[in-house]
């Protein structure tokens, strides 16, 4: 079987699907039209599926004999962003856009389902297609797992991809071990005592306390984590005050902690509380600190990455596989799957400078080179069969 040639044979269908999704984006778990389109495609291909996580979809393709099961994941939701591209497939929904490539991910997954269903007599075991809602918000993967998406039959391993505007079309990026960071959003409310700006001695200034906190928490990463290990504390907002001559009663600030090791994640959370509480108390204020649990680290399994590399060599050649050295500090909901089963996640190159496809994900002019669709389909199909048959 030459999966790349077969994928090229359905290229027009893939492009049409991707553009439909791009023109009709939806948010969070409210993916009713998107889910319907996916199920219509599966119905036409005679592929069984079931609903999960409100608008998520799990499809099942059974091979000729019993065996292992591999999951293939695609996220579905868009972003609350205006599409400022000039093209025939621009988003038709004001303020909503597929600015992160999930339209391509769904399209590739449907192409995989079509080809593997066509060749289900060529493999043993089962394919479980995982269409995930709410990747950009709270992580639909964790809901899917709770509702049994990895059961009946038990999924033994999972693969997934993400388009990359940094990697040229025709290439992929792979990495062993940690692929994406973990995240912990936090919020700090600092309470002081307000008063007249001309008489600071009669106040407890929460703005001064807050600025001291902002500077101090940066030293947790720079002076308490090994310089060889990535980590960061972002302060994304600082709110307080109403007038030039009033010292306010309180300020609020918040952001996100990002780490790439589980032990660092726990350490930085602990130290954030200790540092903030210590500074605020020493400056006569009071602090309320909230740290949320969000996406975990995405861990790649060495053997699964080997399968991706071997499969990609068949499709695009060894010279087009880029070994990534550092993890991404962005977060990825696929991490929930990778914490449950051996997994491999990689970047599919979609950049094309000649076509002007250079804009970053989560921007209003983001786009992909659609030639990458067939490449993604072929690599995933090869990887699935390599896992199941070898």
UniProtKB/TrEMBL annotation:
Taxonomy, superkingdom: Bacteria
Domain Peptidase M20 dimerisation: 186-277
Binding site for Mn(2+): 100, 102, 136, 162, 362
Cofactor section: Mn(2+)
Keywords tagged on the record: Hydrolase, Manganese, Metal-binding
Pfam family of the protein (one): Peptidase_M20
One GO BP annotation of this record: diaminopimelate biosynthetic process
Stored InterPro entries: Amidohydrolase, Bact_exopeptidase_dim_dom, Peptidase_M20, Peptidase_M20_dimer
Transmembrane segments: none
EC number, as in UniProt: 3.5.1.47
UniProt cross-references to SUPFAM superfamilies, sorted A to Z: Bacterial exopeptidase dimerisation domain (SSF55031), Zn-dependent exopeptidases (SSF53187)
Cofactor mode of binding and number, as noted: The Mn(2+) ion enhances activity.
Top EC class for this record: hydrolase
Iron recorded as keyword: no
Molecular function per GO: metal ion binding; N-acetyldiaminopimelate deacetylase activity
Protein name as it appears in the record: Amidohydrolase
């Amino acid at each position: 079987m030459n999966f790349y040639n077969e994928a090229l044979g359905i290229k027009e269908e893939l492009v049409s699907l991707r553009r439909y999704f791009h023109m009709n984006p939806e948010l969070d778990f409210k993916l009713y039209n998107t889910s319907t389109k996916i199920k219509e495609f599966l119905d036409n291909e005679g592929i069984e599926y079931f609903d999960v996580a409100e608008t998520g979809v799990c499809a099942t393709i059974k091979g000729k004999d019993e065996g292992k099961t591999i999951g293939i994941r695609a996220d579905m939701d868009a972003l609350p962003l205006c599409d400022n591209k000039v093209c025939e497939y621009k988003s038709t929904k004001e303020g909503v856009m597929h600015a992160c490539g999930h339209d391509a991910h769904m399209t590739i997954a449907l192409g995989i389902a079509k080809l593997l269903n066509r060749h289900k007599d060529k493999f043993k075991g089962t394919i479980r297609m995982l269409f995930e809602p709410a990747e950009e918000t709270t992580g639909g993967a964790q809901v899917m797992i709770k509702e049994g998406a990895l059961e009946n039959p038990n999924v033994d391993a999972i693969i997934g991809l993400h388009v990359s505007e940094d990697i040229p079309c025709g290439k992929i990026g792979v990495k062993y071990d940690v692929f994406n960071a973990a995240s912990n959003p936090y919020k700090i409310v600092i309470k002081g005592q307000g008063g007249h700006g001309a008489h600071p001695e009669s106040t407890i200034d929460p703005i001064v306390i807050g600025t001291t906190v902002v500077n101090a928490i940066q030293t947790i990463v720079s002076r308490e984590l090994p310089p060889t290990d990535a980590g960061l504390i972002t302060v994304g907002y600082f709110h307080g005050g109403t007038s030039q001559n009033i010292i306010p009663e309180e300020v609020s600030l918040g952001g996100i902690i990002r780490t790439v090791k589980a032990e660092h994640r726990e350490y930085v959370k602990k130290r954030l509380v200790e540092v903030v509480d210590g500074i605020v108390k020493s400056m006569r204020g009071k602090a309320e600190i909230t740290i949320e649990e969000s996406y975990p680290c995405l861990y790649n399994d060495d053997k699964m990455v080997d399968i991706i590399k071997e499969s990609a060599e068949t499709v695009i050649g060894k010279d087009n596989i880029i070994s990534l050295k550092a993890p991404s500090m962005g977060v990825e909901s696929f991490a929930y799957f990778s914490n449950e089963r051996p997994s491999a996640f990689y970047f599919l190159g979609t950049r094309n400078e000649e076509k002007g496809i250079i804009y970053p994900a989560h921007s209003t002019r983001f786009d992909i080179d659609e030639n990458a669709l067939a490449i993604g389909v072929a690599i995933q199909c090869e990887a699935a069969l390599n896992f199941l048959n070898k």
